[in-house]
Structure formats: structure tokens, C-alpha cells
UniProtKB/TrEMBL annotation:
Domain of life: Bacteria
InterPro entries: MrpA_C/MbhD, Nuo/plastoQ_OxRdtase_6_NuoJ
Main subcellular location of this protein, as a coarse class: membrane
Compartments (UniProt record): Cell membrane
Full protein name: Sodium:proton antiporter
Membrane topology note: Multi-pass membrane protein
GO cellular component entries: plasma membrane
Record carries keyword Ribonucleoprotein: no
Bilayer-crossing regions: 44-72
Keyword line: Cell membrane, Membrane, Transmembrane, Transmembrane helix
Limits of the MrpA C-terminal/MbhD domain: 12-77
Length: 84
């Protein structure tokens, strides 16, 4: 059962990473990175490291998400393609 949960969390993390990379909307990219952090929290709990999981939840999922959302608020939701 633990192996199945690990595979599901890995699939979740891969899906979240693809969401973060492929989206032109920066808000959805920030959401993808937050989901990636939540998948890492699940993996850490499966690996019997609750202290690392709680730290990842507090810093990775909560604080980093807040910083990314404030950055999206300041910069706007869409990427500008004309700068390249």
C-alpha cells in the first residue's frame, strides 16, 4: 500500500511540475509549484520524516506560495513574450 501511495505522490509531483512549466499564466504556474510542494510533503510523511514534512509544508507550501503570489500580484498574471 505504501508503494502505491508513493507512486501516486510521484505522479502528482510530475503533473504539478508539468503544470508549472507549461502554463503561460503565472498564477497557474505558482499553483503548480505549490502543488509540487504538497506532493513532497506527502512523500516525506511516507518516508517517516514528519519533521521534514512539516517544515516543507510550512516553508515550501505556505511561505514560498505566499511570496510567489505576491510576485504575481506585482508583475501581472501573463508572461511578456516581447522581451526576448
Amino acid at each position: 500500500m505504501t508503494g502505491l501511495l508513493a507512486i501516486l505522490f510521484f505522479a502528482w509531483m510530475i503533473g504539478a511540475a508539468l503544470l508549472a512549466i507549461r502554463q503561460p499564466d503565472l498564477l497557474q504556474s505558482a499553483l503548480g509549484l505549490s502543488l509540487l510542494s504538497l506532493g513532497a510533503v506527502g512523500q516525506f510523511f511516507l518516508l517517516h520524516a514528519p519533521d521534514v514534512a512539516l517544515t516543507e509544508a510550512a516553508i515550501g507550501a505556505a511561505a514560498s506560495s505566499f511570496v510567489m503570489l505576491m510576485g504575481v500580484r506585482q508583475l501581472g498574471r501573463t508572461e511578456r513574450k516581447d522581451l526576448q
